[in-house]
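Example record used in the benchmark description.
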Amino acid sequence: DSLPGQPVKEKRTAASLYPAFQALLDRTEYLRNNVNADNINSGTLPAARLPAATASVFGAVKTGSNITNTAGTISIASANVIAALGYTPANRAGDTFTGKVTTAASAAGGAGFNLPHGVAPTTPGNGDIWSTSAGIFARINGATQQMLQSVGLSLPSIFTVTGSPVNAGAGTLTAALATQAANQVFAGPASGGAVAPSFRSLVVADLPTVDIAHGGTGATSKAAAFDALSPMLAIGDLIY
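Model output (structure tokens):
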């Protein structure tokens, strides 16, 4: 007739209590079938009463021992993330790789590695590499070096140059003597101070004084040359 510890109330028959009891059962069944993660704002519901969570359905999810749930906030330590991955992720803000880094192969759709144009660092360190609109640069042993883009060869006009400039790091530079007019010699200036040699005609000053033993006269005038070669030994000698 009454619950233990409560005052005795008016007695009722089982028949009179049946409608209320049935209503309670109906309400319990309703809650059982309709309470889920979508309409629970607070409290605790056994996981068995929730569907399994999917990409489109809210439901129960069991967390591992490396995940903590404090007042509804789920968190995981970075060490546990690294342990789950099996490696330490790179930091976008800057990091040091301890192994070989391989990029995707270049293809028609794009290169496997991109080094955007910028400006040269104020104080680059050895090993730094950067690019600007002028080219690609690297800091090597305390000096900034630029990657070779093209090289040309310029020589004096006595040479003809072909294959210049060489671009994209491949090519051959050749040089050959240019054609000259007849009776020209490659020599320094005919007179005056020293200058670069060129092709020109011989002048008297180019010819040395050659002694008789080597086919010359050893003389520097016509008379002296005649006397050196003449067989006459005394005044009055005749040549016939």
